[in-house]
Amino acid sequence: MPEAEVVYSDVKLARGKKRANEAVTTSTDSTYSEIKILKTQPSTAELSEDPQQAVVRKGSKVTSERVVLVVLSVLLAAALCFTTFEIIKTNKKVKYLEDDKMKCDNNLTETLSKIKPCSTVQPTCPVPKVIDDPCYKCEEGWEQHGGKCYYFSTSKSSWEQSRDECRAKRGELVKIDSIEEQRFLERKLRDVMTDYEDKFWIGLTDSAVEGRWVWVDRSPLHQSLTFWSNNEPDNWNGTHEEHPDGEDCARMGEKGGADDLKCWFDAFCSKPHRSICEKAGVRGKFKKVCD
Ligand SMILES: [Ca+2]
Ligand SMILES: [Ca+2]
Asked: Average pLDDT, whole number, for the chain?
C-alpha cells in the first residue's frame, strides 16, 4: 500500500465497563495505541472547503511551477552567457598566442640572419686590429646557416649508411628544430635536387615503434613542427614480401618547391638517397681588420 494513502494518528482509548468474566482489576488507567486509518474518504475539512479557496490553492500551485520555470530559464540563460563569454575569451587568447608565435618566429629569423659566417679574407695591413665580432664558420663543403653547418651529400646511400657517413664527418643526420630551419632547407633543396625523386634523408625514423617518429637524438617529433606532405606518412609497404615493415625513414624535398613547407615523405630505409648532415658551427669571437 503506498505510504501516501495512510495517515497516522495517536488516539486515546478509554477502557469501558468491565466485562463480567473479566478479572477484577484496580487499575483505572487508560491504554494507548497507535493505529493506521485508511484515507478512503476526503477529510471533513476538505469537504467543507470553499470551492473558491480550492481554486486559489490550485492557482498558487500553478504560480509556483511558473516561478520554478522562470528561475530555471534564467539559470540556463546565465549558463549560456557564461559559456559564450568563455569561448570568446579562449578565442582571444588563441589569437594572442598565434600573434606571439608569429613575432617569435620573425624574431628568430631576424636573429639567425644576423649570425654570419666568419670572413675568410685576410687583412692586408702589417698589424691588423682585432675587434670583437662574433661569427660562425664551417668546414669546406659545409654551408653555414643560423650558427649551424649543413652538408648536402653528393652520393646516395640507405638511411643507416647515410647516418654513418654523417657521423664519420663528426655530424649527424639533420634534426629540424624550427620553421625557420625547415624554410631554409626546403629552399636550398629546390636548387640542389636534380629531379623529383632526388630527395634527401633527414634524421627522423619510426623504425623502433611504428607511427612513433623520433629524431636521431631520440627526441620525439613535435606535432607543431611536422612538415609531412599530403597523405604522408602512409607507411606504404609496396609488395608486402619485400617490405613487410613498411616505410620507416623520412626524406624531404620538392624540386618544384613547397610553399607550405610540407615536403616530408616516409620511405623504405634501404632506398638509396642523398642526405643532409648537420653540426654546430665553430664560433669565432674576434675578427682582424685594418684601420
Ligand atoms: Ca613507418
Ligand atoms: Ca610514404
From this structure: 80
Question: Ligand 1 centre and the CA of 17: distance in Å?
Answer: 103
What nine digits make up the cell of 13?
A: 482509548
CB neighbour list of residue 285: distance below 8 Å, 6 or more residues apart: 132, 133, 134
Among residues 16, 45, 15, 47, the alpha carbon closest in space to that of 31 is found at 15
CATH class belonging to 129-283: alpha beta
Grid coordinates representing 18 are 468491565
Nearest ligand, measured from the Cα of 271: 2
Strands, E, within 99-234: which ranges? 129-137, 143-145, 148-152, 172-173, 200-205, 214-215
| The pLDDT value given to residue 133 | 73
CA of 176 from ligand 2 middle (Å) equals 19
**Residues 128 and 288 sit within 8 Å (Cβ to Cβ):** yes
Q: How far is the CA of 236 from the centre of ligand 2 (A)?
A: 6
3-state secondary structure of 251: strand
pLDDT-flagged residues of the chain (< 70) = 1-59, 102, 105-120, 240, 285-286
Closest ligand, as measured to the CA of 231: 2
User: Among all ligands shown, which has an atom nearest to the Cα of 210?
Assistant: 1
All cell numbers assigned to 131 = 675587434
Q: What is the CA radius of gyration of the chain?
A: 44
Helix, strand, or coil here: 145? strand
Domain boundaries, the chain: 3-45, 129-283
Whole-model pTM: value is 0.60
**Looking at residue 269, what is its pLDDT?**
96
The closest ligand to the CA of 214 turns out to be 1
pLDDT tens digit sequence for 106-116: 666 666 656 66
